[in-house]
Amino acid sequence: MLSAILLLCVLSVISLFLGVRTVTLTGLLTGEGDQMMVFLVSRVPRLIAVLAAGTGMSVAGLIMQQLARNKFVTPSTAGTLQSAGLGILVALLVFASATVLQKMLVAFAFALAGAFIFMLILDSIKYKDVILVPLVGIMFGGVISSITIFIAYRYDMIQSLNAWMVGDFSGVLRGRYEMLYVAVPAIAAAYFYADRFTLAGMGETFAVNLGLKYKQIVNIGLGLVALITAAVVLTVGSIPFLGLIVPNVVSLFLGDNMRRALPYTALLGGIFVLGGDIVGRLIIYPYEIPISMIVGVVGSGLFIFLLLRGERYVTS
Question: 301-311: per-residue pLDDT in tens?
Fold first, then answer.
């Protein structure tokens, strides 16, 4: 844990002083105007947004995996992320003059509905194969994405939709990222309910026999996932597979006890996204590669690896 915190601190310092506009410690200490403005308006908000998005989506993925009892189920493989995108498009079309908070509420409602629909589909599956479940979620998300793209083409909103959905931190400035703060109480609530989520992950019959209000806990978990997903998508765009990579890596070392794994999941999520953001800013400097591309490449590769590993486990 200590080494991970030190790594996070080192990456944070690199992120704060990395960019086209030169910002130095000497310039900040002497109060140089331009450097102070860049540092406070752009660099610090970007760092906070990266950490909030990384920790939030990782914890959301951990919650989804517990509730669905499947290591491959995350907001991006269960239709939640795609449903939030549909909600944003509806907010842009129907509530064009809506505030950011109002758009957030619409995206949250659609993300929550998508999560509930996926859980209903999951309940109707007779054979909950470890590989079949996420594939069903991917197909469900594909249907939602197709509907979203169709509506966007119909109303000439495809460029606006792409601008909202591509995960990118380059546009994060002071006054345009604060919605991500909702991830902090959501993570705190997830830690508070961690033991209950762990029990819910053992199945409805087992959880009810232990006195757990199963439906209520599932609803709370899905609400937290939808809230985090809507805030991240609305603020910085879609970051696919993040909720898949980090929880699976942590579970390899710490097992499935959510209360024990959650702090490490949040910490590793922040480190992973921050490291990916730094790499994306350096590869084609002074330009940037969107974080969605960096995480998508790594996440898709790991997803295929885990699927093949799971298939060998099932067939062995």
Answer: 776 776 676 54
